[in-house]
């Protein structure tokens, strides 16, 4: 028993020191999988409805850095935080219509390459969130700042005259693709009630 505890402690130390991504939850735990994938991803594809001339009303996807908390394993709030500026093209879209979708995939971690999974293979899990982008309230700025700057330290030095602000993805719908047989639907209540 002591040997097993030692191995578990050693694995956690390796993970905390920047080791490999821990194994994902089993496919029957879709809510945990959604939390796991988000927590282990540093960026996602955010799709908005374009407000740009010539593209108005069309889908427009863009890459954004994100974080749900510091990178320690088995932690995270589940809330996707972003650091945005009104100068960004997708943010201009969000000013007209705050609805969006956010896709995150284990393809950005070493996990899928290690197992030889193509990013489109369902075993290389990805999560699609639907909802809206909202500015965080003053009471939540500290959480958002810690979550983002712990994973994206260069953000602290981005030009101050760009008027950066902290925002979050307000989740209303969640789809999980982590195994064969199609998407699984997870409610926000199920999602927030589990740990990654």
Automatic annotation (TrEMBL):
<dbReference type="GO" id="GO:0005737">
    <property type="term" value="C:cytoplasm"/>
</dbReference>
<keyword id="KW-0325">Glycoprotein</keyword>
<comment type="similarity">
    <text>Belongs to the CREG family.</text>
</comment>
<dbReference type="InterPro" id="IPR014631">
    <property type="entry name" value="CREG"/>
</dbReference>
<dbReference type="InterPro" id="IPR012349">
    <property type="entry name" value="Split_barrel_FMN-bd"/>
</dbReference>
<feature type="domain" description="CREG-like beta-barrel">
    <location>
        <begin position="25"/>
        <end position="193"/>
    </location>
</feature>
<dbReference type="Pfam" id="PF13883">
    <property type="entry name" value="CREG_beta-barrel"/>
</dbReference>
<dbReference type="InterPro" id="IPR055343">
    <property type="entry name" value="CREG_beta-barrel"/>
</dbReference>
<dbReference type="GO" id="GO:0012505">
    <property type="term" value="C:endomembrane system"/>
</dbReference>
<dbReference type="GO" id="GO:0005615">
    <property type="term" value="C:extracellular space"/>
</dbReference>
<keyword id="KW-0964">Secreted</keyword>
<keyword id="KW-0732">Signal</keyword>
<protein>
    <submittedName>
        <fullName>Protein CREG1</fullName>
    </submittedName>
</protein>
<feature type="signal peptide">
    <location>
        <begin position="1"/>
        <end position="20"/>
    </location>
</feature>
């Amino acid at each position: 028993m002591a040997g097993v505890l030692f191995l578990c402690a050693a694995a956690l130390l390796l993970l905390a020191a920047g080791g490999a991504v821990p194994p994902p939850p089993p496919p029957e735990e879709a809510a945990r999988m959604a939390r796991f994938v988000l927590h282990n991803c540093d960026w996602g594809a955010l799709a908005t409805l374009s407000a740009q001339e010539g593209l108005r009303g069309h889908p427009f996807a863009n890459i954004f850095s994100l974080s749900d908390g510091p990178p320690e394993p088995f932690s995270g709030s589940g809330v996707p935080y972003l650091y945005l500026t009104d100068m960004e093209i997708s943010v201009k879209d969000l000013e007209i219509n705050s609805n969006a979708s956010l896709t995150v995939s284990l393809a950005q971690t070493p996990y899928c390459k290690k197992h030889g999974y193509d990013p489109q293979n369902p075993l290389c899990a990805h999560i699609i969130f639907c909802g809206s982008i909202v500015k965080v309230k003053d009471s939540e700025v500290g959480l958002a700042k810690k979550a983002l700057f712990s994973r994206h330290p260069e953000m602290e030095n981005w030009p101050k005259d760009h008027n950066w602000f902290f925002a979050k993805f307000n989740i209303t719908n969640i789809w999980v693709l982590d195994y064969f047989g199609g998407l699984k639907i997870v409610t926000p209540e199920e999602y927030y009630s589990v740990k990654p």
